[in-house]
Structures are given as C-alpha cells and as structure tokens.
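Our preliminary data section would be incomplete without showing what the modeling component actually yields. Below, a chain of 218 amino acids is followed by its predicted structure, encoded as tokens that our downstream tools consume directly.
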Amino acid sequence: MQNTINRIIEEKLIVILRGYTYEELKRVTEAIYRGGVRCCEVTFDSLGRIRDEQTAAHIAGLVHEFPDMLVGAGTVLKESQVALVAAAGGKFIVSPDTNPAVIQKTKELGLVSIPGAFTPSEATLANRSGADFVKLFPAGEMKLTYLKALVTPLSHIRFLAVGGINENNVQQALEMGAWGFGISSGIATPQMARRGAYDEITARAKAYVEAIRHAHQS
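Predicted structure:
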C-alpha cells in the first residue's frame, strides 16, 4: 500500500476514465501511457447502467495489459465495490463522498483510500476514518485560494484537487497545497475515443505531465 501512496505522490496525476467500452478503454489507456501518464481510475456507473462486475472486469483487464500503470477505481459508493476492485487487482479507491464504511473496507483490503470532501468537517472525517488522500471535489466550483484556506489548518491531510484543473494552473494549485490532481475531460472523453482521436489524447496527456513536472521543479 505504501508503494501505491508513494507513486501517487510522485506522479501527481490520475486520469479519470468514465463512460468507455472496454476496447475504447484499452486504447485510451494506451494513449495516455504514451503521453507519460502512469495512474488512472476506472469509474463505476452510479446509475447502474453498467454492472459493477463488468467495471471490475475492465479494471482487471487494464491491470493485466498495462502492468506499469497504477489502476484504481472511481465513483466507489459501496463496500461491495471495494471488494470487487481488490479482487480485480486495483490499487486505490476514489469516491465523490466521505463514507467511513467504504474507507474502512478499503483499508481492510489493503488498498489506498481517496474519498471526496469539500468542507473542513468532511475532510477531517475522511482523515480520521483512515483516508490516505482526500479528493477536494468539486475543486472547480471555487477559486484555488479555497484550497489554500483549507490546507492551512489541515496541513496534515494530503489533498488531491479534482475539477477546474488544467495545464495552465497546476503550478498555482501545487503552490496552494495540492498533492496531486484528478483529470477527466481535460485529457480524454468518450467522444474523442469514438472519433479515433487517440493522438490528441496522447498530446493532451503529455501537456499535463510536462506542466506538472515543470511546476514541481520550479
């Protein structure tokens, strides 16, 4: 588990993959890998249109086909989903909310916990429940100075900013206290996959990776 934490800290970028067929998922993962991305999350469908077992199978497939990629799950709302991810070989659990039961199940199964929070109370509850990182979500609804205001009294919590982050403001976000980022449509969308824009996805991924590397070295 500590290796996963260290890799997330080092890479600082998790690409969020939502709404793809498995063939699209493979090609998008290959495209972001070419762009330098080494962490991705495959999201569960909260509306139930895609069975949880199918999402877990997609995760297992990526784990097998991309052994150098750190693969986790997103939109995890239930303990049963955590168990499916663990069995599939996923390494981390991302949620939009702070659910102590999900956090505790994640830790029990040896996975890294990244629940979502927006307020100091939610972030503190997540941390006390055992979270390894806290996803500030939706970060795009506030200026990045909100992140700074949150981090100042809660500097013991590792925040990942999700929403409103682009290659032009990653340096500011790091300066405000972010430990990393979750990026979705800024890098890849199902529409891009369906029109075969994989080179564009690679280029976008590379732009984010280089922006983060430059910001971290500044």
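The mean pLDDT is 96. The chain has ten helices and nine strands. Preliminary results of this kind motivate Aim 1 of the renewal.
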